[in-house]
Amino acid sequence: MHVFVTGGTGTIGSAVVAELLRNGHTVLALARSDASARTLKDAGADPLRGEIADLDVLRAGAAQSDGVISLAFSRDYSDPGTLAQAVAQESAALAALGNELTGSGRPIVTVSGTPWVPGRASTEADPLPTDGPVGGRGRSVNALLELASRGVRTSAVRMPRTVHNKGRGGFAGLLVDQARRTAVAGYPGDGTQRWPAVHALDAAVLFRLALESAPAGTSWHAVADEGDAVRDIAAVIGRRLGLPVEAIPEGDFGPFGPIFAMDQPASSARTRDALGWHPTHPGLLEDLENIQP
Questions:
Q1: Is the residue at 274 inside a domain?
Q2: What is the pTM of this model?
């Protein structure tokens, strides 16, 4: 396939681009800067200059491709306003991409988060939350999946709270950044809450499998670690950085504080059985050993 990818230079996206190219696909990838374009060219992809807000560019990329993987999302989490703006931007982009593919039978794979279910690990059958700080993402993903009835092979890969590679990325990465700023390896709540995790290279394989074979209107879980206790995550961070490990107020984590404090394990049993996905890379706690002091 000739695949149009947005967000192709991020932690997940760069791994997805490499995975697609390694398996015989060609890639056209959105590039918002000259530096991004060079990175994509060096990786073997063709860049298409534009940003996620450039809906005409997104439609043009989808129109000339056999399938789409949509990963672009702003990483500015500084306050609730910028987060809401990022969610609205992503929603408009998904609508534009989906409408361009309507009636074509071509696939589009988007990204969302694993839901949280009180008292148990969430599964692929559980609905996404449609309220709260990121509820808009759930609504836009649901709208995209509904395009299955309009001739689009839609699917969503639900990512855990931490997508990591070489000790960086995801919620655990935000804990590392916070620890460096404050000189404390902090965690919200009592630290027993669990976060699921996946290595970026394993997640990339699942995006490819979904693109190639996922039935229309389906959701999948890119979960390798069902749930690591946040206190254990902070303990590795503290040891690697030589910092004390302490509970701190969830408000210190900004708009994601309430989410950080939730127990949110997730299962990928159905994904592994149905798509033959088998993670092979290091788990989160092992990978955090790559943090440099």
A1: no
A2: 0.93
Give the long-range contacts of residues 80-87, CB within 8 A, separation 24 or more.
80/133, 80/255, 83/133, 83/134, 83/255, 84/136, 87/134, 87/136, 87/137, 87/140
Range of the domain at 208: 2-162+199-224
Q: Which two tokens stand for residue 97?
A: 């991409």
| Residues 35 and 85 placed together within one structural domain of the fold | yes
At 116-169, the pLDDT tens digits run 999 999 999 999 988 876 788 899 999 999 999 999 999 999 999 899 999 999
Q: How many whole angstroms separate alpha carbon 104 and alpha carbon 101? A: 6
What is the chain's mean pLDDT, rounded?
Answer: 94
Q: pLDDT of 236-255, one tens digit each? A: 999 999 999 999 999 998 87
Distance (Å, rounded) from C-alpha 268 to C-alpha 149? 26
Position 253 scores a pLDDT of 87
* Number of separate domains in the chain: 2
Q: Is 277 inside any structural domain?
A: no
Tokens of 3: 């695949």
Nearest alpha carbon to residue 208 among 220, 226, 224, 197 = 220
Residues 2-14: pLDDT tens digits?
Answer: 999 999 999 999 9
Strand runs labelled E in 130-174: 153-159, 162-164
Nearest to 256 by CA among 192, 163, 170: 170
CA separation for the pair 130, 135 (Å, rounded):
4
Query: Quick one: tokens of 197?
Result: 């995790």
**Measured on CA atoms in the order 18, 19, 25, 29, is the torsion positive or negative?**
negative
